[in-house]
Amino acid sequence: MSCPDYSAQGYQTIVVSLDGPVAVVKLDRSKQRNTFIDALALDLIAAYELLDRDDRVRVVLLTADHTAPAFCAGADLSSGWDRVYTEEDERQGRHTHKDAGGQVTLAIFRCRKITISAVNGHAAGVGVTGFQLPCDFRFVWAGAKLSFPFVRRGIVAEAGSTYLLPRLIGYSRAVALLLSGGTYAPDSPLLQGLYYASFPNREEVFPAALAFARELAANTSQTSVAWIKALLWRGADSVEGQHLLDSRGMADLVARGDSAEGARAFKERRPFKFSDVLSKDLSDFVPWWTELDVRQRTSKL
Amino acid sequence: MSCPDYSAQGYQTIVVSLDGPVAVVKLDRSKQRNTFIDALALDLIAAYELLDRDDRVRVVLLTADHTAPAFCAGADLSSGWDRVYTEEDERQGRHTHKDAGGQVTLAIFRCRKITISAVNGHAAGVGVTGFQLPCDFRFVWAGAKLSFPFVRRGIVAEAGSTYLLPRLIGYSRAVALLLSGGTYAPDSPLLQGLYYASFPNREEVFPAALAFARELAANTSQTSVAWIKALLWRGADSVEGQHLLDSRGMADLVARGDSAEGARAFKERRPFKFSDVLSKDLSDFVPWWTELDVRQRTSKL
Amino acid sequence: MSCPDYSAQGYQTIVVSLDGPVAVVKLDRSKQRNTFIDALALDLIAAYELLDRDDRVRVVLLTADHTAPAFCAGADLSSGWDRVYTEEDERQGRHTHKDAGGQVTLAIFRCRKITISAVNGHAAGVGVTGFQLPCDFRFVWAGAKLSFPFVRRGIVAEAGSTYLLPRLIGYSRAVALLLSGGTYAPDSPLLQGLYYASFPNREEVFPAALAFARELAANTSQTSVAWIKALLWRGADSVEGQHLLDSRGMADLVARGDSAEGARAFKERRPFKFSDVLSKDLSDFVPWWTELDVRQRTSKL
User: Where does the source fall among the domains of life (chains A, B, C) (predicted)?
Assistant: First the structure.
């Protein structure tokens, strides 16, 4: 099992720290309103891939400094949209472009731990699509301005948002958000169901999310979480097929330590002590789906 | 057409009775908090398969005694999780296990009649996933505690819940419910949209659901219901494909008696007298999908 | 680029007019409560197909006279359900029937512009399924009675509604609406999320929708809208696949004029002047999906 030292990874744009089994990923470009640049994408992708494999970590919490002008103000447009292209794109041809926002979405989405976004400031574009939608839980400041500006910029809604948003809250709301190109508050009827909790003050968001993360980290099984996330997003296309998959999962987990501990601790009304870890205790049956390779042939991403 | 005598089926754990065209399935393990055991699964599966084929039945209403300690307290963990295995599992190998909760879900889900769950007590685990999610309508006691404990027990969310829950209320809420492992009241924002109606007192739930069931049974076409349920859950993967399917359904039903009666009674502003039945009047075109066989080779389930 | 004269198209049942880049399609059978007949279907299909290809048009707004007895009272049942059959159906065999409601749904659904329905009166059957569900935005009169009568008429829920409704607002609500066969007000919990805005007075609905349409038409990119609609409804079946598609869209749009204008106008805080049009500036990559042919071989539809 790898126990990486996150302070030694050389991240330029984020700070990653462990709070016991909770990993906190903090955006570190406050002065630039945490705008999205390639370096930030690369740091986030590297961090989530490492956190996914680190058995010590049970919950990953993304946040920003609550005094920053924004949680994430979207793409850095100072040099226009051409910034979306990487050097690799130029070498391989622009049609091979793999959008950096989507690469971040995938890194978070594929993380087999519980993921939370603590949105303690305004968010625009990829600050919503890439930094919030792929997470399992979203905490938000009630005063946040949340922008979906794509149709008003002449670009696509990116970062897999056209896949995730309609599934998260239904097509009716997702279509309205993406085609209006508007800016909404968390209590907008259009955003109903997207946020797990909202808070009147910016400084409350992270502590609340951290307390929630600690509670989950202390009382949930790593293998159970990974199985359920996989069943949710990589499921069968019929309820019968899903029954076959979850039966397989049940048979696997019932043979592991965490299920015995879960039943015992529940019966004895005492705190859980789950110890199964992904590196050793996740069935070879996972993943049962074919993972699409989304890397450019020689991409540094 | 078969007219089974439900009192003669030898059910050990449920009571099935006909109230005209409404079948009431009552859980009968009140002293055991209606915990889920193999015998209960087998009774429910047998009953729903019979009710599906009984032309007299138009609505199936699942409920419990409102004085029971729970509507269903989940799996019986008195002997640990090993109880999930049947003798057949042991003979065939545990990897062939077909989860009993999912088998109940399928029996209800595949029932071509209108299905209702009248949740007049607390519900945990399979008491939510297997006894509520596959139903068309859910009535609930506002004071019910609804638990999704899977990640806190080291097992998977079962009974097809990872397929049904995100479709019923969206991925954002479904992921939060399943990964938090929490207990929620029916008025929780996370459960919004899941329940058709809620009632402050336990004793009100069943009578309200029964009145609703009777009204639907009196005024809906059996073939129309079966077609619409099939279109909803076994539809095409594009709106064009769905148009082809529902055109086929329209052409079929317009040639049947119920559509003529529907138009006439509506025009004459009199009660409907629908008489088409599934055993005679459901098109051979249904089912148009391939049903996945989920039985173990020699399973008694 | 075609610039059709909509007043010269010979529509019998609708009036189509241009308000700058906003096309208004007005149902013109007020005395017949805008009931659905073949002629209306044919007019709507022809109009939406033309509007889809007319580069001048950015938003299409469907409405009725707010003094009409209904926005659309559903199918004209004066001669029973047999009216669903066209002469073509009779020639080719009724099993080849292509439901006219679904053909209207498809014409609206396939329109690559922003589509709005301003529901300023009661709506039943196809008045909901065909005239509202395929639109991007729905504005409604708060006093409207919205009926889903299918199970009480002995027919299927048509016009692709069994595909669209569960995706728009989730299966829990969609199943309840379609299997109850009930009539609901826009503020019903079952309809939550379906309407973008509702208004206490009938006469307010159209002006509000028109103002909204004008604002969107002035400030959104035609190509961006077309791409995002395609990504939403013709997306991949995994988030990875969607990332590949939206990356392709991003690379395409970043090379076009509208994205440069979007970034510049945003930076200069001035109104947008988008000029890319579908006939010239939509990538050959669109459509990437295979369009299902839903025409009858010799159908006039």
Answer: Eukaryota
Q: How many CB atoms lie within 10 A of CB A131?
A: 31
Using a CB-CB distance cutoff of 8 angstroms, which residues of chain B are in contact with residue A270?
A: none
Portions of chain B given CATH number 3.90.226.10: 6-218
**What pTM did the predictor assign?**
0.97
Residues above pLDDT 90, as percent of chain B: 88
Q: Does C228 contact A85 at a Cβ distance shorter than 8 Å?
A: no
CB-CB under 8 Å, B174 with A260: no
Please tell me the class of the A222-281 domain. Answer: mainly alpha
Q: What pLDDT, on a 0 to 100 scale, did the predictor assign at position A145? A: 98
The C-alpha of B261 sits at a distance from chain A's nearest C-alpha, in angstroms, of 34
Chain A residues inside the 8 Å CB shell of C276: 154
Subunits with 3+ Cβ pairs within 8 Å of C are: A, B
Residue of A nearest to B100 (CA): A247
Chain C nearest CA to A257, separation (Å):
32
Q: How many residues does chain B have?
A: 301
* pLDDT for the residue B1: 55
Residue B239's nearest CA partner among C42, A160, C167, A177 is C167
pLDDT of residue C297: 67
Q: State the helix-helix crossing angle for B171-180 and A222-233, rounded to 10 degrees.
A: 160
Residues of chain B with CATH 1.10.12: 221-281
* CA dihedral angle for residue B183, residue B186, residue B191, residue B195, rounded to 10 degrees: 140
CB-based contact A154 C249, cutoff 8 Å: no
pLDDT score, position A200: 98
One DSSP character per residue, A60-74 reads: EEEE--TTSS-SB--
Task: Return the percentage of chain B with pLDDT > 70, whole number.
Answer: 97
The stretch B31-56 carries a mean pLDDT of: 97
Q: Which CATH class is domain B221-281?
A: mainly alpha
| Chain A residue with Cα closest to C272 | A152
Task: Give residue B297's pLDDT.
Answer: 67
Are C102 and B243 within 8 A, CB to CB?
A: yes
Task: Tell me whether residues A136 and B161 touch, CB distance under 8 A.
Answer: no
Nearest CA in chain B to C82: B254
Distance from CA of C147 to the nearest CA of A (A): 19
Q: Give the homologous superfamily in CATH for domain A6-218.
A: 2-enoyl-CoA Hydratase; Chain A, domain 1 (3.90.226.10)
What's the order of all strands across the beta sheet hosting C183-184? C123-124, C146-147, C183-184
Q: Please answer yes or no on whether A247 and B77 come within 8 Å at the CB atom.
A: no
Q: How confident is the model at residue A270 (pLDDT cuts 50, 70, 90)?
A: very high
- pLDDT at position C296, please? 74
Closest by alpha carbon to B222, among B112, B131, B145, B135?
B112
Distance CA A140, CA A117 (A): 8
Beta strands in chain A (DSSP E): 14-19, 22-27, 59-63, 114-119, 123-124, 137-141, 146-147, 183-184, 197-199
Tell me which chain A residue has its CA closest to the CA of residue B175. Answer: A136
The whole-chain average pLDDT of chain A stands at 95
Task: Name the pLDDT band for C293 (thresholds 50, 70, 90).
Answer: confident
Instruction: Output the six-digit token pair for A169.
Output: 């809250």
